[in-house]
Design brief:
alpha+beta; 5-stranded antiparallel beta sheet; 2 helices; about 35% helix; globular; A-D-PHexomutase_C; A-D-PHexomutase_C_sf; Phosphoglucosamine mutase
Length: about 90
């Protein structure tokens, strides 16, 4: 999408940022080159997770990336990301 649309999408995602994703507390929201949610406790090794929603600069789509300590959590986070994008488009 054009740069203005990418920025608009990013702002809309941040504005409606959830307090929890996949049962984990959203500790931080970073809005640089997309929206990155830092999740879970910071003091536990391997306990932190993240979800990134990144509007493409060349295609009309949003890429969703996630990292967590289990495949089940990653799937839950990706599902939550898809729901956020769907909510944005509604």
């Amino acid at each position: 999408p054009p740069r203005g649309l990418k920025e608009e999408m990013t702002k809309a995602i941040v504005k409606k940022a959830p307090k929890r994703i996949a049962g984990m507390k959203v500790r931080e929201v970073r809005a640089y080159d997309g929206v990155k949610f830092i999740l879970g406790p910071s003091c536990i090794i391997g306990g932190e997770a993240w979800l990134l929603l990144r509007p493409s600069g060349t295609e009309p789509l949003v890429r969703i990336y996630a990292e967590a300590n289990s495949p089940v959590k990653v799937r839950e986070m990706l599902k939550a990301g898809k729901q956020m994008i769907g909510r944005r488009q509604a």
